[in-house]
Specification:
This protein has 723 residues and is of the alpha+beta class. The protein is 17% helix and 32% strand. The protein has an 8-stranded mixed β-sheet with strand order 33-34-36-35-37-38-39-40, sandwiched between helices. Strands 24, 25, 26, 27 and 28 form a 5-stranded antiparallel β-sheet that branches. A hairpin with a 7-residue loop joins strand 30 and strand 31.
């Protein structure tokens, strides 16, 4: 349906108004970009768009423009003296790291895991015996063997309760457009027909096995029965019986789901009850359904503010509620109960934030026969609180400080596996004994040639425009002198309730520190570090708070004599790319260089993108007058001003990105190149074999890191010392 509040007209080039630049590039050497102005009217406000034609990625003219931009960026980057040695150092460090495991799933006496073996291009699926010794692991599914080019990726997978089968979604070229494949674990052979349309970007996909292992529930998107522009929406749940043709699979649930439903299925702790979590787009609203022998029933609705659910082995339902509790409170629904109103508060709200559900991270609520484990956030770092079944606290899992726990996996023997990540040490899994309340590191520990023995992480707070204190995690070499001359890279995201948590810094930041840099990770509003209120203060009509927080972070590191504007670089991606565009157009004088990957820049048209509707619950819609005013007030593309001294800019996008339309990067780059008069370059790199970054081959990821570091080293006059 067309938006009645928006009218469109095309203007001749002679009628360009509202600050549009002439059809030339103020950035020397940039390809000339033709302007074909289009004017939209939103709620009686006229908005001119000079580069609407760049939205059509299938147009040969747009493709030629994109190739010219990428060729220019490649000529610059590949011509930098440090580019080749930076890549070599990165690849050597990453390749020398040990094999790693994640996404652990215990089945009987074995543990399945996503397995990475540098320098192989893609992750695999392996099965480990009870001793968890990596040398005893066996690879079951290897995309590298299936496709030596390294462009086939695993989206997600699930092992059957008897450990005999693996259902695996796989996609190509970082597209995240997945089909479901069935593998026999014993032989590693693929069997049966491939099931299409099970996974798309943002909406995602999922599968949950039936207890008898004869079939599974899975998510399915429309096929040819709907128009092409609707085939990445309207996700529903079907059941597939092994051996049957997918075309005959049984519809189970979903016709009543919203258009932007994001469905996750789980039988993790009870194979007899399927939990279906349905997100209403990306804004943090969830509904929950249970599917069992009695059929399907809904237990929560979006307005109930239940953000995570787990089902115990006895059928007890545990719910993380944000209703009147922005940090979360744990509710308990007795087995068989169908009304949320009968749930009792088991664990009340506390200063810590109970983690909610969502696309990334493991189960937030883990019930076992002895206890309930709750993954919590304490301002960014995490902990795992332990409660008995009466809701009494019995302690926390042992952790270094600060640390992140993203997975908690119960084993058959009554012990608990949990992941541990810190800034300065490679990640590992620890094993906790419920009986003795003791913990020990397991053989599942990564090793790395990278040492951060010379590095420290300190936390400081910047005061935002409205007085809010914003945490800054500052990574620096010990003895760093605060003389105002340190090259500093400031990173931020600030959206969707995603929290900035400790993680191993890795090869790229090791090289950054070696070259004399300081790295700062800002925990902005819009994230989830301090609960739902922290997220809400950076969403919808409050989005400007995120940009104010980041600007305050930049001003803080300058005021504290870490750096100066001519030594300050900023970096973000996706929603963090929007952040880069907003702060660059609002305060261009603060920054020397900007790195923005797969970003969103035209906030008035993002909801029209193939994947844009999912973002409406986070950003808002131009159809609502108040939300339009907020979007237009910060939309980066619409606030590029001619004759402005913009910093040097490096943008990167992927041609197969299904989460953020690459057109945002094309239009923003064209506008910046026409407007800047600083003499600093504005580059766009477009990778034909990459998407949003998920599922990209190792070589692509290393090349992207080398591009970023080489650009920053050049712009900030940094030198990488010899190893």
């Amino acid at each position: 349906m067309k938006n009645p509040a928006r009218k469109i007209s095309k203007l001749p080039l002679t009628a360009i108004l509202l600050g549009a630049a002439a059809a030339h590039a103020a950035d020397p050497g940039a390809p000339v970009t033709e302007q074909v102005p289009v004017t939209d009217t939103y709620h009686h406000v006229q908005v001119m768009d000079p580069y609407r034609w760049l939205e059509n990625g299938d147009d040969a003219k747009v493709q030629a423009w994109s190739e010219a931009q990428d060729a220019r960026a490649r000529k610059y980057l590949d011509g930098l003296a440090q580019r080749a040695p930076v890549y070599d150092r990165l690849f050597a460090l990453i390749s020398a790291a040990s094999n790693s495991y994640r996404d652990l799933h215990a089945v009987g006496d074995v543990v399945f895991a996503t397995y990475t073996q540098p320098p192989k291009q893609q992750s695999m699926i392996a099965v480990l015996p009870a001793d968890l010794v990596p040398e005893h692991a066996r690879v079951v599914v290897d995309p590298n063997a299936m496709n030596p080019k390294g462009t086939t990726a695993i989206d997600w997978w699930s092992a059957s309760p008897d450990g005999k089968w693996l259902a695996v979604s796989m996609s190509e070229n970082g597209s995240e457009v997945g089909s479901l494949h069935l593998f026999e674990v014993a032989s590693g052979h693929e069997v049966g027909a491939v099931i299409p349309h099970v996974q798309y970007p943002t909406g995602g996909g999922s599968v949950a096995w039936r207890a008898d292992c004869k079939g599974f529930w899975y998510t399915r998107y429309p096929g040819a029965e709907r128009p092409a522009d609707e085939q990445r929406f309207f996700q529903q749940i079907y059941f597939h019986k092994i051996g049957d043709e997918p075309a005959g699979d049984t519809y189970v649930l979903g016709k009543e789901f919203p258009r932007v439903a994001e469905v996750a299925l789980s039988t993790r702790f009870n194979p007899n009850i399927v939990l279906a979590s349905v997100a209403n787009g990306d804004g943090g609203e969830f509904a929950h359904f249970l599917i069992d022998a009695r059929g399907a029933r809904q237990i929560t609705r979006f307005e109930d503010k239940i953000v995570a659910v787990s089902v115990g082995a006895d059928g007890t339902v545990y719910l993380d509620s944000r209703l009147g509790a922005p940090h979360g409170k744990l509710l308990k629904l007795e087995p068989g109960a169908a009304e949320l109103g009968s749930a009792k508060v088991l664990v009340p709200e506390s200063a810590a934030v109970m983690q909610g559900g969502g696309e990334f991270g493991g189960e937030p609520i883990v019930p076992t026969a002895r206890a309930i484990y709750l993954r919590e956030l304490v301002g960014g770092p995490s902990r795992v609180a332990i409660f008995d079944h009466a809701g009494k606290s019995t302690g926390v899992l042992p952790l270094p400080d600060p640390a992140t726990v993203s997975e908690v996996e119960p084993l058959r023997d009554g012990t608990i596996l949990y992941s541990v990540a810190t800034y300065l040490e490679p990640p590992y899994y620890a094993r906790y004994s419920e009986g003795s309340a003791s913990s020990a590191q397991t053989p599942l520990a990564e090793t790395s040639p990278i040492s951060f023995a010379d590095t420290e992480v300190v936390r400081e707070f910047a005061k935002s425009k409205d007085g809010t204190l914003v945490p800054l995690n500052i990574v620096r070499r010990k003895g760093t002198v605060l003389n105002g001359r340190n090259p500093l890279l400031l990173y931020g995201y600030g959206g969707y309730g995603v929290s900035e948590t400790p993680r191993f810094l890795g090869a790229m930041l090791r090289l950054w520190l070696d070259a004399g840099g300081v790295y700062v990770d800002a925990s902005l509003r819009g994230g989830g570090e301090f609960g739902e209120s922290w997220h809400a203060q950076g969403a919808l009509t409050h989005k400007q708070n995120v940009f104010d927080d980041f600007i305050a972070a930049a001003e803080h590191v300058i005021a504290e004599n870490y750096t100066t504007p001519d030594r300050l670089a900023i970096m973000g991606g996706s929603n963090g790319g929007l952040l880069m565009g907003a702060v660059m157009t609002q305060r261009p004088e603060l920054f020397r260089a900007v790195v923005s990957r797969v970003g969103i820049y035209d906030m008035l048209r993002v909801e029209l993108d193939p994947n844009g509707s999912f973002n409406v619950t986070e950003f808002g819609t131009v159809k609502d007058p108040a939300q339009f005013n907020a979007l237009y007030a910060y939309s980066p593309y619409h606030h590029v001003k001619d004759g402005t001294h913009y910093p040097a800019v490096f943008m990167a996008t992927g041609a197969t990105d299904g989460r953020v339309n690459p057109a945002h990067s094309r239009k923003m780059i064209a506008r910046l190149q026409a407007a800047t008069n600083s003499g600093k370059p504005v580059y766009l790199s477009i990778n034909a074999h990459a998407g949003h970054g998920i599922g990209s081959a190792l070589s692509i990821r290393v090349n992207q890191q080398a591009d970023i570091l080489s650009f920053l080293f050049d712009q900030l006059n940094m030198k990488l010392p010899q190893p």
